[in-house]
Sequence to fold (315 residues):
Amino acid sequence: MGAVIPSPIPHGRTARRLEWAHLPPHVRALVEQRCGSPVVDARSQGAGFTPGFASVLTCEDGSRHFIKAASAKAQRMFAHSYREEARKLAALPSATPAPRLLWLHDADDWVVLGLEHVEARNPRRPWRAKDLEAAVAMLTRTAEVLTPAPGPLSHERFEVEFAEFPGFWGHIRATRPDLPHLEEAAALAARFAEVTAGDTLVHTDVRDDNILLGADGSAVLCDWNWPVVGAAWLDTVFLMIGPRGDGLDVDAALAAAPLTAEVPAEHVDIVLALLAAYFFRQGDEPIPPTSPHLRDAQRWQGEVVWEWLCERRSW
Fold:
């Protein structure tokens, strides 16, 4: 079990989002039309690191809806992200543990997604073992459904999309030249394509703010912006970063999880070295005004991954 590394971010309150009242009247009218009833309450989702509109809306008829929206002019990057999320959600098999896309509006300079509302909560922070077990079970089911990857999403490969990451150790050589075992870690990361290939669609952004846990113990995975095709076990390793930083014994969890129980330790270490390079480098980037907590979160994840890797390698 690793030592707790205190997180510097206010979990559940990291996003600066548009509110319902900020949406133009024609967008609000569109949403109410698609929902079939006037909106009487809007609860903005405070987790995550993007500024787009993301709210649970309650309508006059008692129905609830999860709506995302971004201006294609004022929030071009985030509108594109929502557009891509809609494309990818539409391609997921219905059995995928993910909220369903119900409708999409992509016109009049606005991208608006109507998503299935899931009555659930994010995993509590610090992570609890029971929540982690539910998340692991969900990822096991996700891998079953998404192997092989759905045809429309089968072209983006992990080894291609992550090809830049080993080079980020060059940034670390310049900024942290005294980091112990730097060259050994860089050599590990350089081997990532050898161990990450597969035919499963993996989410790649598995964090507590992208997981919803139901009262019945089930879980679903949200925010399908960055899925790629790779080894089925990758998402389970990504999941463990937050719990590791919160002090849980994630190596025991990996040994017990169906997707990772038989994965060689060296393969996990290679992926951790790859992730450490990414998080260290991203943590040094300027703070985006739309996401004031993003760099703190990335630096924290880098510290967690590095400490975890060093312990596993006895460095």
